[in-house]
Every structure is written in C-alpha cells, then in structure tokens.
Design a protein that fits this description.
- This protein is mainly alpha-helical.
- It folds into two domains: 206 residues, Up-down Bundle (Growth Hormone, Chain: A), CATH 1.20.1250; 206 residues, Up-down Bundle (Growth Hormone, Chain: A), CATH 1.20.1250.20.
- α3 packs antiparallel against α4, α3 packs antiparallel against α9 and α12 packs parallel to α14.
- The radius of gyration is 21 Å and the shape is globular.
- The relative contact order is 0.14.
Length: 422
C-alpha cells in the first residue's frame, strides 16, 4: 500500500495526469511510425532494402535535429516547439504518403519526406522528462517524489513499444499501411498539442540569458559526456537484442519465428515494467553513480545468461527476470541527467540522450546482425553484454567524471533542500 500511495502522490501533482496520459498517447508514434513507414515504402517499391533506407533516413534525421529543437525549447520554452513540430510532423507524413503514390520513380521525394518527418518529430520525451524535474525541484517540496515520478514515466514509456506496433497491425488488418501512418500522425498531433497546451508546459519560466547554452552546450558539462557513453552502451545492447531475440526465435521455431520473437520481447518489456514499478517505491540512493554502475553490471550479466539459454521457455523466464533491471537503470539515467545538467540546458540534454540512444541502437542492431551471420546468435547476446559492461565500468570509476559530477550535484541538492519550504 505504501508503494501505491507514492504513485498516488505523483498522480496528484498538478499537471501530472496530463504528462502521464497525454504524454504516452503523443509518443505512440515512436512505436508506430517507423514500422508503418517501412511497410508503406516496401509496398510501393516492392523492395525491403529501399524501405530500410527510408526508415534509416527518418531515424537519423530525427537524431541529428533533436538537440537543436531541445536548445530552442530551453530558450523559448517547450510549448512553442511542441506546437510547431506537432503540426509539421503530420504534414511531412502526409507528404510522404503523397510521394509514395508515384512508387519507385519518386524515391528522392520519398527519402526527402522521410527526412523531414524524422527531423520534425516533436521532442516530447525530452520536454516531459524536463517537466518532471521541474515539478519535483527541491524548491517545490516534492523532491522526494522525483524517483517515483521518473520511474512511472520510464515504465509507462514501455507501453509505446507494445501498443504502437499492435495499433499498426490493427490498421493494416482493417485498412492498410497508409492508414497506419495516418493514425500515427493523428495520435502524435493530438497528444503533443494536448501536452503543449497543458498547465505544466505553459507554466515554464525563462532562464537568464547568460545561462543559455552556447557552443557545445551540455556536452561541455562535467560528467555529461561520460553519461552519454553509458547511454550509448545501453543503446547498443538494446539494438543488438532487437536482432538477437528474433534470430534466436528463428533458430528454435522457424515456422512461428515472428510471433515467438514478439512474445519474447514482450516478456522482456514486462520484466522491465515490473522492475521499474518496484524501483519507483525505493528511496533514492546516496550514491547514484554507484547504483547506476551496479544496475548496468547486472544487466550485462543477464545478456550473457541469455546467450546460454537452451530453449524459448528458458529464455522467456530469463528475459522477465533480467528485464527487471532495465527500467531501474533508465530511471537512474534520467535522474542523473537532471542532476548533472544545468536547468537552463535540460531539454537539450535529454534530446542528446535520445540522439545517442537512437544512433547506438542502430549500430548495435547492425553489429548483432553481422555476428548472427558469422558466428551465431549467442555471440550477439555477448556483444550486447560487453557494451553494457563497458558502460558499467565508466559509471563505476570512483574518481571518474560521472562520480565527480554526482558529488557536485549532491552538494547543490543538500543546499537546496536546506532551504526547502516546510
């Protein structure tokens, strides 16, 4: 009951229900658009390779432009940026559908529209996580709820990757892939506009001009580049798992590989959500860097365990148990971004996390694919484990930049809490 009370307290924070509900609806496109785009382009070109290129252009354009949107949001506020991109992104998707009508003869237009759609995807995740930091600022008297709030955000975000592809499947069943892409455009538009016009985003207050990011911005903040290295390690591992699990399913049950892979990945996500819910009820650790390193180390071990599982049932159980470390690790990652980064650079910092995670995931998937073909599925899991283990080592360095940044953040926090309103 104590755990439920903590989450209820988060729910009662003014503006929290909007972030939790509309924030998930607005981000369903993350799970819908890449898949629907792939299907649309494949149908009109009859080539998966071209569809994959369009998907890659979409992802890379989003990753490249996201930090720019984040910096603008830090200067003018998240609402204007969200409103502009909430409209521009669906328009770009409609442009993609119109271009696709010409088939393979309009590849340049298809790729261009894919790039624009990716570049204009609303930076909603960064805005929401920045908002949770603001809502649980020490001056608000709610800092004790930050861990629970970010755990709720991280765990609920798992829904995007389960419900999104399911919605695409439903749209394809009753209509076609083009309808699925339009559906993604609608949920992105509605959810993003709802969040942008909500009390939390409209309540944003500008930072002093001399505090605005310049040049490399948060990349020059002590500890943040090292934290991004850890983000990359996780991204590589998740991208590799996205290839290794389906390959494992194919090796053990080729006739039902797709459904088996979906079930296994859903079990992994379920374990993550359970772990995240539990983690949100725990008090914040005094040494966040050490706890982060421990969670990364445990996650690295789970990948090695996955590599030796004898069959789908054993792997499924291992995925549920091992997945319980994912959401806690990501919750700590998001907490540390908020602690290390200056408040005036928070949106940009979170967009850098998204950018690095997307790029690393693509690299991890590519690397795992090569390993599966050359030496087999188990080595793809080992590859994922090594990537996370490297991140764990960086996070664990007692005199490393993350540890030093966390120590400075702890001093600032203690000062802020000392003046917290009673």
């Amino acid at each position: 009951m104590t755990a439920l009370r903590q989450y209820l307290q988060v729910w009662r924070i003014p503006g929290a229900p909007m972030l939790l509900i509309a924030g998930i609806v607005g981000r369903l496109g993350i799970g819908m658009t890449p898949l629907a785009l792939l299907m649309v382009v494949e149908q009109v070109t009859d080539r998966y390779s071209l569809a994959a290129v369009a998907g890659g252009v979409y992802a890379l354009a989003g990753a490249a432009l996201s930090p720019i949107a984040g910096r603008i949001a830090d200067r003018v506020g998240p609402s204007p940026v969200l409103l502009v991109t909430a409209v521009a992104h669906p328009v770009a998707l409609i442009g993609l559908l119109l271009a696709s009508r010409a088939g393979a003869d309009a590849l340049v237009l298809i790729f261009s529209a894919s790039a624009v759609a990716g570049a204009t995807y609303p930076p909603l995740t960064a805005a929401i996580r920045g908002a949770w930091n603001d809502l649980t600022d020490p001056a608000s008297g709610r800092y004790g709820l930050r861990n629970t709030a970010l755990a709720a955000e991280t765990s609920l975000f798992e829904i995007v990757f389960v419900v999104g592809p399911t919605l695409v499947a439903v749209f394809v069943l009753v209509a076609d892939a083009a309808a699925a892409l339009l559906g993604a455009a609608v949920v992105t538009l509605v959810g993003t506009v709802t969040v942008a016009l909500g009390k939390v985003m409209r309540g944003w207050r500008p930072h002093p001009q001399d505090a605005h990011a310049k040049g490399l911005g948060p990349l020059r903040v002590g500890g943040f580049p090292a934290l991004l290295f850890c983000v990359a390690g996780l991204g590589i591992a998740f991208g590799a798992a996205g290839v290794a699990v389906p390959a494992y399913a194919t090796a053990h049950d080729a006739s039902n590989a797709e459904s088996l892979a979906g079930i296994l990945l859903a079990m992994w996500g379920t374990g993550s959500a359970i772990g995240g819910f539990w983690f949100g009820t725990r008090p914040q650790a005094r040494n966040a860097a050490r706890q982060f390193a421990q969670l990364l180390g445990l996650l690295a071990v789970t990948f090695v365990i996955f590599a030796v599982m004898p069959g789908p049932l054993a792997l499924g159980v291992a995925l549920i148990v091992g997945g319980a470390t994912i959401a806690p690790a990501l919750t700590l990652e998001n907490t540390m971004v908020g602690r290390i980064s200056p408040a005036s650079m928070l949106n940009e910092s979170y967009t850098w996390v998204v950018t690095v995670a997307v790029a690393a995931s693509a690299a991890g998937g590519a690397g795992a694919g090569i390993l599966v073909d050359l030496v087999g599925v188990p080595w793809a899991f080992v590859f994922a484990g090594v990537a996370v283990a490297a991140a764990a080592v960086v996070a664990a360095l007692p005199t490393g930049s993350i540890a030093r940044a966390e120590a400075r953040a702890e001093v600032r926090l203690e000062r802020a809490l000392a003046t917290e309103p009673s």
